[in-house]
Amino acid sequence: MNFELSEEQQMMRESFARFLDQESSTVRVRAAMPSGFDKQMWNGLAELGAFSVRVPEEAGGLGLGLLDAALLMEEAGRTLASGPVAETLVAARLLALLGGQAELLERVTTGAAVVSLAFHDIAQQPRQWVAGGAVAEAVIARDGKNILLLSVPESARGGEDNLASTPVAELALKEFPRTVLSSNGEGHIIFSQALEEWKLLIGAALAGLGRESLRLAAAYASERKQFGQFIGQFQAISHPLADLVCEVDGGKFLVWKAIRHIADGAPEAGAAVSIAAWWNSEAASRAVAQALHTFGGYGLTTEYDIFLFNLRAKAWPLVFGDPQRLLQEAGRRLYGGERAVLVLPDAGDCPVDFDLGDDARSITKEINAFFEKNVTPEMREKFHYSWEGYNPEIHQKLAEADLLFPGLPKDMGGRGLKTYAKIAAMDAFEHQGYNTPAANVAQMVSLIIYRFGTDELKREVLTKLMKGEAIASLGYSEPGSGSDVFAAQCKATQEPDGSWRIDGTKMFTSGANLASYVLMLCRTNTEVAKHAGLTMFIVPLKAQGVTVQPVHTFQDERTNITFYDGVRIPDSWRLGPVDAGVKTMAASLELEHGGGFSKVQRAMLKAAEQMCREISFEGRPLIEDRTAQSRLARSTANLWVSDMLTFRAQWTIAEKKQNLGYGPMAKMFSSEKFLTDSRDLLDLTAPYSLSKRAGPAGFLNQCYRHAQGTTIYGGTSEVHRSMIAERGLGMPRTRA
Fold it and tell me: What are the backbone dihedrals phi and psi of residue 564, each rounded to the nearest 5 degrees, phi first?
């Protein structure tokens, strides 16, 4: 897996960024209004080779890949470049591939001429809105089977006042002088490829624009005071921005994913292009609206630059038409047989890669073979995402097969898999329908004991956990503290003989009814700050004074409230120094960074697809309905973004890169989309989804109930939003 650009791409991006920061500053953008075209900036871009990026080398261009062009467009979007950059990039490549226009091509690549595109067949739409039509001397268009170069008379380039002061114009294309560039099927394919390329480039531009608008909003919220506080300290301000930075970053990665799919010839490549264009149009629109709202009344004035982002975020994609049609197109490409394989552009060099590698494929194969050999249909019937699915026999056999703890290092008896293979292992378990919270918690507890436990604990407890002979539960939350684990009041008092007496209550002690031990965070000092007076212990759940009381949820998941009344444990069962429980607990968190819910999102989507094929709607399978296809495509988009955010978090950890809250982004985004999609897919497949019968209907039903908890446990979405705002957007702390 690789999220890092090549050295050449980084240099190119930095070069364009420096140029555009100066030549497309908001001062310059304003100066270019109302025409929306900055000739000096345009010429400078040409001198840097911008319009030659996608022109093949044999035609005198740079011959670079789609990702290179997307990086350029991200910077153009970030700086609101005044001119039809995406359209001219694509038109220059078209002129080169179709041939016969060497002189015009040279004028385009040197900035002397602007050539744009007509997106729709002029045989059907003779009058069209054209991006850059107010400054273009020519437009490339499709007329049935012919690909034409239409000369735009100077008298027709007037343009008109429009939403974002861009050089857009409605042109009577049928009336203009024409040159036939191609009259065969190959030219038609090349033109269709150009349209797909434009979708990716405008998506990249919108991702850059959206990210910059959020940066401006976060910076303003970090300096603007209201009621004696920076407004960025108010969660009502910071949390929506945190949501949107996930969507905007996800949009950029959808462009990258589409390019990677094209390079690999993946069957989903065409749909990925449509989804990337649709998603970025939506995400940028929401981002700029929230960014402007952050500025309050000042955002409505022309004194602040945020209005420029707001208007261009809408204007750029709308020249193509309603963005919702792109989602419909994605639905047809995914579920209606419209694969678009032949109309995708050449991707060129693409160093970003989301393949998990050979080790990942090997562990997946091994896990699948284990389940085929050791798991019976009767066992499968009792699988469940929660602790209710715990099977002691499978658990112990996984330990014997060295598959129980893939993330633990070999020197403590784990499998020692690298990061990407660990992701694949978890995917393989999910594919088999076997979720392993018991193993995941045992893994955490084992790691803490290994690092902080006494020899006695390692001998008495760690050995049993590693062999799969016992499991452990977590005793963090309490009835009055919830996610604020540092507010724990369950008390541990040291007795004269050095042992400890534990008194108090723990809430949501899931698995305590099945486990042999609980990892306990207890209050040992009330005279210091709350986070500094905690100590970690291992407590046997069969000890005298422990009571486990069930708490049932509507998710078919049992949790527990546990009571500790004078429970005695030796000091040797303490983990780490007294009053240093927070540091001890932190050792377990490294196993949770970057996690999300894309695995169950994927399983849920597959179940919905299956039901849509089985349900009859107006005399045909529901999967053939355009609305159903669009809704499934939207869930696909949410799944892909969840995947990409999780991959980035995992890659950042594995490669030791700067981490700006990427783990919380993956967890928060995926849990929220799991929740919204579970509702929508339940609606889509109603009334069959009401049933708890075995099969896809029962699984969708369960997903709806399961999803409610994912935004709560493991840290609520609100906690993660605060972390994202602080780490990812540099906003002030929103928690006391």
Answer: -125, 110
Same domain, 85 and 201: yes
One domain, residues 283 and 362: no
Structure tokens at 121: 């067949």
Give the pair of three-digit tokens for residue 449.
């004991």
Residue 386's CATH number:
1.10.540.10
Quick one: CA torsion of 219, 224, 226, 228, rounded to 10 degrees?
A: 100
Residues 20 and 124 in one domain: yes
Q: Write the single-letter amino acid at 149.
A: L
Q: Return all residues near 343 (Cβ < 8 A) that are at least 6 apart.
A: 189, 192, 193, 195, 196, 270
pLDDT tens for 141-166 read: 999 999 999 999 999 998 899 999 99
Residues 470 and 584 in one domain: yes
Nearest to 313 by CA among 269, 279, 283: 283
Place of tokens 């010429």: 43
Cα 347–chain centre separation: 22
Chain-centre distance of CA 134, in angstroms? Answer: 37
Which residue type does 143 have? D
Does 573 share its domain with 515? yes
CA distances from 381 to 25, 345, 375, 377, 610 (A): 62, 46, 10, 6, 19
Q: Within this chain, do residues 380 and 320 fall inside the same structural domain, yes or no?
A: no
Of 198, 164, 207, 168, which is closest to residue 315 (Cα–Cα)? 164
CA atoms of 316 and 280, how far apart (whole Å): 11
**Tokens, residue 311:** 């208007």
Count: domains in the chain:
4
Asked if residue 447 belongs to a domain, the reply is: no
Q: In the Cβ-directed half-sphere of 504, how many Cα atoms lie within 13 Å?
A: 24
Clarify whether residues 618 and 582 are in a common domain: no
Cβ distance 591 to 437 under 8 Å? no
Neighbours of 42 (CB within 10 A): 24
pTM value surpassing 0.85: yes
DSSP string, 87-150: HHHHHHHHHHHH-S-HHHHHHHHTTS--EEE--S-TTT-SEEEETTTTT-SEEEEEETTEEEEE
The per-residue pLDDT for range 168-219, each reduced to its tens digit, is: 999 999 999 999 999 999 999 999 999 999 999 999 999 999 999 999 999 9
Pick the closest to residue 654 from 341, 422, 307, 366 (CA basis). 422
Tokens of 726: 């602080």
Tell me 181's DSSP state.
Answer: E
**How do 616-617 and 546-552 pair as beta strands?**
unpaired
Domain boundary residue among 291, 326, 355? 355
* pLDDT tens-digit readout, 224-269: 999 999 999 999 999 999 999 999 999 999 999 999 999 999 999 9
CATH number for the domain harbouring residue 476:
2.40.110.10
- Compute the Cα dihedral for 254, 257, 261, 266 and give only its sign: negative
Q: CA distances (Å), 149 to each of 94, 146, 223, 428, in order?
A: 10, 10, 52, 52
Contact 382/391 with Cβ under 8 angstroms? yes
The helix, strand and coil proportions of the chain, stated in percent and rounded to the nearest 5, come to: 55, 10, 35
